[in-house]
Amino acid sequence: MYSYIARQPIFDQRQQLIGYELLFRDGEQNSFPSIDPDEATSRLITEHHFLVGLERITQHKLAFINFTEDSLLYQFPHALDPANTVIEILESVPFSSELLTACRQLHEQGYQLALDDYTFNPQWQRLMPYIHFLKVDIRQNPLPTLAAQLAQLEDFRGKLLAEKVETMEEFQQLKQLGFDYFQGYFFAHPQMLRHKKLGHHQIHLLALIAEAAEPELDFDKLVRVMERDLGLSYKLLRFINSAFYARTKPIQTLKHAMVFMGAIELKKFIALVALSNLAENQQPELLKLSIIRARFCDLIAQASGQAQLQSSAFLTGLLSLIDALLEQPLPQVLTQLPVQDAIKQALLNQQGPLSQPLQLVLHYEQANWQSCQQQLQHLSSEPMDVRAMYLDAIEWAEQLQL
User: Fold this and answer.
1) Which of the residues 78, 86, 136, 381 has the least number of beta carbons within 10 Å of its own beta carbon?
2) Count H helices, E strands: the chain?
3) In terms of C-beta distances under 8 Å and separation of at least 24 residues, what long-range contacts does 335-344 make, across chains too?
4) Which of 276, 284, 281, 231 is nearest to 254 (CA)?
5) Can you spell out the DSSP letters for 331-387?
6) What are the backbone angles phi and psi of residue 325, rounded to the nearest 5°?
7) Which 8-state DSSP code applies to residue 218?
8) Residue 119 three-state SS
């Protein structure tokens, strides 16, 4: 039996990462209400905190964790470090004197509390002295009516967190309304109206990614390309001489480094470095998410018995946010990036064998566990520990210094 856990980033007004909401479901039961919410919370703690360590998933950022009524009243949060934990009180929890007492005690013990899917109901006023975050779902509370609702909170001294922010325009409007934190995929959606023109440097990097997508690598050609970019050459040598490859003797030449890495790993490295250079002025979490997707797709292809697709699956995941990184429509970017048709089909039309690992990654990120399970059944008849792959992908992305 496997369990799933995913994370969704939370940002401040400067788009700096402050933490993650952790989403848990049972891998075989898939989703609520198939598994009791209290069981889900307890299993998140026992299976992920005690056995894995939530800090591995959050990389020591704040962990926003959902708690139901029973898990709050029976003191479940005490197993977690108050310095790194935000206790989210689910919208399904009814207000009661017992809840008020529990929240006051948790507050005194140093825990930060959040009201999830806050509905501006006056019943929560007595709880406000102990609340640090109010999470407002902007799909349930549309922007045109939100300003009047926020006026009810003039005495609230905590932070406002907007959920399900999907566009940069919404992000800017919510900042003006006074929201402090933001959750959603607004950072992963390009601002198409800007229609940025690609510079020569970016076009050069796209060409490098395209070279990494070739079935057979031309080492001499790659050496000539990288010799023209001192920064790329330095990163290659630093990467190959790092502890990651546990070498006893340093490598001195570019071609020696490339041959030592081998074609598969070299393709990944070239694509990673090129993409990191493309993203140098973008939100860091956007690049990190691209790398997590790449590694996740790579591991999924390997675990599902499709080792021949690993390099292509890696590149598919890596390029899945290229439109947001370049602020260009995806079809237009791909016309300048002559990658194989199978990658284009996966990215543009969600079709072909490479679309399956990518779709699994996307469902996983959004905690759509039922769709995850269906996708897993398409990929392999053998069980796969996708939680372990997800943790591996997170740690791999965090450890890379490109």
Assistant:
1) 381
2) 19, 8
3) 336/198, 336/203, 336/206, 337/206, 337/209, 337/210, 338/210, 338/213, 339/209, 339/210, 339/213, 339/315, 340/213, 340/215, 340/312, 342/312, 343/213, 343/312, 343/315, 343/316, 343/319
4) 231
5) HHHHHTS---HHHHHHHHHS-STTHHHHHHHHHHHTT-HHHHHHHHHHH-SS---HH
6) -65, -35
7) -
8) coil
**How far is it, in rounded angstroms, from Cα 312 to Cα 343?**
7
Q: How far from chain centre, in Å, is Cα 97?
A: 38
Would you state the pLDDT for residue 51? 40
Estimate to the nearest angstrom the gap between the alpha carbon of 205 and the chain centroid.
24
What residues does 183 pair with on adjacent strands?
10
CB 227 within 8 A of CB 254: yes
- Distance, CA of 214 to chain centre: 28
Amino acid at 310: Q
The segments of the chain whose pLDDT lies below 70 read 1-3, 25-53, 75-77, 79, 190-201, 240-252, 401-402
The answer to whether residues 183 and 163 touch, using CB atoms and an 8 Å cutoff, is: yes
What pLDDT score was predicted for residue 76? 66
Q: Can you say how many angstroms the Cα of residue 171 is from the centroid of all Cα atoms in its chain?
A: 18
- pTM to 2 decimals? 0.83
Share of the chain above pLDDT 70, in %: 84
Q: Could you give the CA distance from residue 164 to residue 181 in angstroms, rounded to a whole number? A: 12
pLDDT per residue over 230-241, tens digit each?
777 777 777 766
Tens digits of residue pLDDT in 66-90: 888 877 887 666 768 888 899 999 8
Rounded Cα distance between 63 and 111, Å, is 11
- Residue 40, judged by CB atoms within 10 A of its CB (0-12, 13-18, 19+), counts as buried
Q: Is residue 76 within 8 Å of residue 51, measured between CB atoms? A: no
Q: Return the bridge partners of 8, or none.
A: 21
Conformational region of residue 164, where left means phi above 0, alpha means psi within -120 to 50, and beta covers everything else:
left
In the prediction, which pLDDT does 244 show? 52
